[in-house]
Automatic annotation (TrEMBL):
Chain's gene name: polA
Protein name, as recorded: DNA polymerase I
Subunit composition and interactions: Single-chain monomer with multiple functions.
Role summary: In addition to polymerase activity, this DNA polymerase exhibits 3'-5' and 5'-3' exonuclease activity.
InterPro entries attached to this UniProt entry: 3'-5'_exonuclease_dom, 5-3_exonucl_a-hlix_arch_N, 5-3_exonuclease, 5-3_exonuclease_C_sf, DNA-dir_DNA_pol_A_CS, DNA-dir_DNA_pol_A_palm_dom, DNA/RNA_pol_sf, DNA_polI_H3TH
Organism (species): Gluconobacter cerinus
Pfam name, any one: DNA_pol_A
Class of the enzyme per the UniProt entry, highest EC level: transferase
Length: 929
């Protein structure tokens, strides 16, 4: 790009230092100097030099704490603590890093780095160029304008006007006025008391500028806000001077001298080697062999709830070792004992853990130090040795002997075993003959406990997010489609690179994510709920639940007969035969031939015929859509349950063994698959039929325990709704009480229809139901439904306040909290699309309640699993579905178990209202429920 149109890239060096220091776990150089911030900064520069498209580049630093702002307000940043001890030596090293990369570094006494950035940005735009600022600092967002943007160095996402408006609610040029009103406790900027981010944005949007807001204050309606605007007007004006960045600072170096320069390879390589950053050397192709230097770890057992102390050393991803003899295996076992921590991963031939055979396993005892132990590879060539292509793969270890040697390590309380998705690997180990592995950590759940809904919890995604590393993919070693080969046929060198890297990445993720549990206040959630639940669910999956195959086949035939009758009726009504299961043909009949109103075409051009469309048509009185819905429900029940359960039944145990998914939902709820037991219709006759097929073993019965109205109880608890609290304390019918409160009629003699409407409102409010949705549910007009909702909020104003408060919390933080501290992230809460934003707001309102219910039943499961063996009852926990637990017990112990479970579930959490648990006993799930 010609020099007269420069693209200047400015790195906010000072801002990045602190972000990198707090984002990365402790690391040390070969000389023992802390270097985690230096490492993060180095990786950022490496990525920047590789990916940026600028013509000019500089890193901007703060020269010191004292600036012109301290003359304006001596208390500015005065309360900021001194930098942590481990960070202080890294300031100079980061400047050394900048020099080693041959990048100009700029600082100027008396001015903050942000002022220099503002001045350089203004200067380059004045020349017709543009500026990219590598930072996500909110204070720099005021600079965004045509030609100037920010780039988040962690997320690698641009920050432009839309992102600023989403954060502050105003344009970038108005950010300074918003900050002046709201102040900034971090920098000790006073602002105006009582005015937060939302209030400040509203004022600026209404009046335009800070001065216009202050001028208008006298004429505002009498309030505390008006009083504060008048009383603290000078503080607001001073705050504006403090937050406004100076864009006229004399430039220490002219832009012409900031042209991008290649680093001197020998200088850079020597510096990286001194720091111990050998994987960076490899990534940059600087030609120095990797020399990982793992720091020995103490063998002492980790304290309860704590991980062993680990100092990270920088290391490359590979090469890794293939273990082909027991002497080498014993050496790795000894190293794991010395380290006190080992990451473990299994390679199998199936995603279904109960059906999977262990093909091999991998171990990692330090970053970059991992191995793969093959058992059942069937490749035609041993790539560990030179020789002819047809040399057989015979250098593998016997699995039984390997597991026998590993067993003491796996039981050793002084060595922490780390997994990614531990439940899967524990099941695989059990099947292979190694049932006892303790203590364990699970990086998937460590992440999930602090970031549910923020991103996926798969290893590859976590690696890219937290390590900046893209692991080898399964497809790259096994192929895809028809060319895919089983992992057992993958050549050993490729299998080792892939499998050992998984263990290596798992260990590194643990080192990064484990310390964040405490910082994000998620440690108790992980230690008391998620981690102990791994073993509980593993046991439940292992036991499974018995199904009546004869009943299922009879049910399938019945569904098929009923479907045929409905299908014949449909064809007669249409006047010809067609494929009832074809959305395309159905759409043409409904909207082209019958010309029913309300049809909408999909992006493919076909008519939409999903359930919402058909339900809408049925509510208008059209008969055919209702018949289609009935046919579809039977078809789904037949294929998903009546037929599939027979196929999924273990022929040996005559049971189905569902797999519980622990890290899928945003709210913390469990889900399940193979089979999915969460979606069986609860209140329909057909759903009851499906549950009839889940039965107890001979001499046993099933016991169901279900939390009663738990989300309404949580709503009363978190929102402090006195009428609801009183109703629950008095044991009243909550729906009748609501109907009485809202509609002004006595509880005694209330007709069922009125109670049903109150029930629909109670549960609808939890899910943020609209007037249209409630009207549709109750088959009344949206206007009448709106009057019900308005009456409800008029009687329970605290619920509306809770809803608004929760939405604001979600918008401010990006997540909401359950009563037990679980973060439930809410993507889309600031979406410009109204429909997506409204959906996210409904999610935010419901998440603390649904998530709180999930936390409570998980706590109950952990308690029950721990205490049930002490009772002497011959019982097993089988299933968890929403707010219900299902047990199998010997018939004579059924009532004792029901009483015990009711007590334990009821005391799983302390709320302002009692937790009520309804129990039932029967030979089938339907009978017990």
């Amino acid at each position: 790009m010609p020099s007269e149109t420069p693209h200047l890239v400015l790195v906010d060096g000072s801002g990045f230092i602190f972000r990198a220091f707090h984002a990365l776990p402790p690391m040390s150089s070969p000389d023992g100097v802390p270097v985690n911030a230096v490492y993060g900064f180095t990786n950022m520069l490496t990525r920047l030099l590789r990916d940026h498209v600028g013509t000019h580049l500089a890193v901007i630093f703060d020269a010191g704490r004292q600036t012109f702002r301290n003359e304006i307000y001596p208390q500015y940043k005065a309360h900021r603590p001194e930098p942590p001890e481990d960070l202080r030596p890294q300031f100079g090293l980061i400047r050394d890093a900048t020099a080693a990369f041959n990048v100009p570094s700029i600082e100027l006494a008396g001015w903050e780095a942000d002022d220099l950035i503002a001045s350089y940005a203004k200067a380059v735009v004045a020349r017709g160029g543009r500026c990219t600022i590598i930072s996500s600092d909110k204070d720099l967002m005021q600079l965004i304008c045509p030609g100037v943007e920010l780039m988040d160095p962690m997320k690698q996402k641009p920050i432009r006007e839309a992102e600023v408006e989403a954060k502050f609610g105003v344009r970038p040029d108005q950010v300074v006025d918003v900050q002046a009103l709201m102040g900034d406790s971090t920098d000790n900027v006073p602002g105006v008391p009582g005015i937060g981010a939302k209030g400040a944005a509203q004022l600026i949007n209404e009046y335009g500028t800070l001065e216009k807001v202050l001028d208008a204050a006298e004429g505002m309606k009498a309030s505390k806000r008006r009083q504060n605007l008048i009383e603290f007007a000078d503080a607001a004006r001073m705050s504006r001077k403090l937050v406004l960045l100076a864009d006229d600072v004399p430039l220490p170096q002219p832009i012409e001298e900031l042209g991008c320069r290649e680093p001197v390879q020998e200088t850079l390589r020597d510096w990286l080697d001194t720091m111990g950053f050998h994987s960076t050397i490899q990534r940059m192709g600087l030609g120095l062999a990797a020399k990982p230097r793992p720091t020995p770890r103490p063998k002492a057992a980790p304290a309860e709830g704590e991980a062993p102390t680990v100092t990270l050393s920088e290391a490359s991803y590979g090469p890794y070792e293939t273990v082909t003899d027991f002497e080498t295996l014993d050496r790795w076992i000894a190293e794991a004992r010395t380290a006190g921590v080992v990451a473990v991963d299994t390679e199998t031939d199936s995603l279904n853990a109960r059906q999977a055979n262990m093909v091999g396993l991998s171990l990692s005892v330090a970053p970059g130090k991992a191995c793969y132990v093959p058992f059942l590879h069937e490749g035609k060539r041993d790539l560990l040795q030179d020789g002819p292509d047809d040399h057989p793969t015979d250098q593998q270890l016997d699995r039984a002997e390997t597991l026998k040697r590993l067993a003491p390590l796996m039981r050793d309380a002084s060595v922490l075993k780390i997994f990614q998705n531990a439940k899967y690997d524990l099941t695989v180990f059990r099947k292979a003959g190694l049932p006892e592995i303790t203590p364990i950590d699970d990086t998937m759940l460590i992440s999930y406990a602090q970031s549910a809904g923020e991103h996926g919890q798969g290893m590859d995604e976590l690696s890219q997010l937290h390590l900046g590393h893209t692991p080898i993919t399964y497809d790259s070693v096994t192929g895809t489609g028809r060319k895919r080969i089983p992992f057992a046929e993958v050549p050993l060198d490729q299998a080792t690179a892939y499998a050992a890297e998984d263990a290596d990445v798992t260990l590194r993720l643990w080192q990064v994510l484990r310390p964040q549990l405490r910082l994000r206040q998620s440690l108790a959630l992980y230690e008391e709920i998620e981690r102990p639940l791994i073993e509980v669910l593993t046991d439940m999956e292992d036991v499974g639940i018995k199904v009546d195959a004869v009943e299922l086949r009879r049910m399938s035939a019945d569904f098929e007969t009923r479907m045929a009758v409905i299908e014949k009726d449909i064809h007669e009504q249409v006047g010809r035969s067609f494929n009832v299961g074809s959305p395309k043909q159905l759409g043409e009949i409904l909207f082209d031939e019958m010309e029913l109103p309300g049809g909408k075409r999909t992006k493919s051009g076909s008519w939409g015929t999903d359930s919402s469309v058909l339900e809408g048509l049925a509510e208008q009185g059209h008969d055919l859509p209702q018949k289609i819905l009935s046919w579809r429900q039977l078809a789904k029940l037949k294929s998903t349950y009546a037929d599939a359960l027979v196929e999924q039944m273990d022929q040996g145990t005559q049971r189905v063994h569902t797999s519980f998914q622990m890290a899928i939902t945003t709210t913390g709820r469990l889900s399940s698959n193979e089979p999915n037991l969460q979606n069986i219709p609860i209140r329909t006759e057909e759903g009851a039929l499906i549950r009839k097929a889940f039965v107890a073993a001979p001499g046993h019965v099933l016991v169901s325990a279900d939390y009663s109205q738990i989300e309404l109880r949580l709503l009363a608890h978190v929102a402090k709704i006195e009428p609801l609290l009183e109703a629950f304390h008095l044991g009243q019918d909550i729906h009748a009480r609501t109907a009485s409160e809202v509609f002004g009629i006595p509880i005694e003699g209330m007709d069922p229809l009125t109670r049903r409407r109150a029930k629909a409102i109670n549960f609808g409010i939890i899910y943020g139901i609209s007037a249209f949705g409630l009207g549709r549910q109750l088959q009344i007009s949206p206007g009448e439904a709106r009057s019900y909702i308005d009456a409800y909020f008029a009687r329970y104003p605290g619920i509306r306040a809770y809803m608004e408060r929760t939405k604001e919390e979600a918008k401010e933080h990006g997540y909401v909290l359950t009563p037990f501290g679980r973060r439930c992230y809410v993507p889309g809460i600031k979406d410009k699309n109204g429909a997506r934003r409204s959906y996210a707001e409904r999610q935010a309102i419901n998440a603390p309640l649904q998530g709180g219910a999930a936390d409570i039943i998980k706590r109950a499961m952990v308690r029950l699993a721990r205490k049930l063996p002490e009772t002497g009852l011959k019982a097993q926990m089988l299933l968890q579905v929403h707010d219900e637990l299902l047990f199998e017990v010997q018939e004579q112990d059924a009532q004792a178990l029901a009483d015990f479970v009711r007590q334990e579930m009821g005391s799983a959490a302390k709320l302002d209202v009692a937790l009520e648990v309804e129990t039932g006993i029967g030979p089938s799930w339907a009978d017990a429920h």
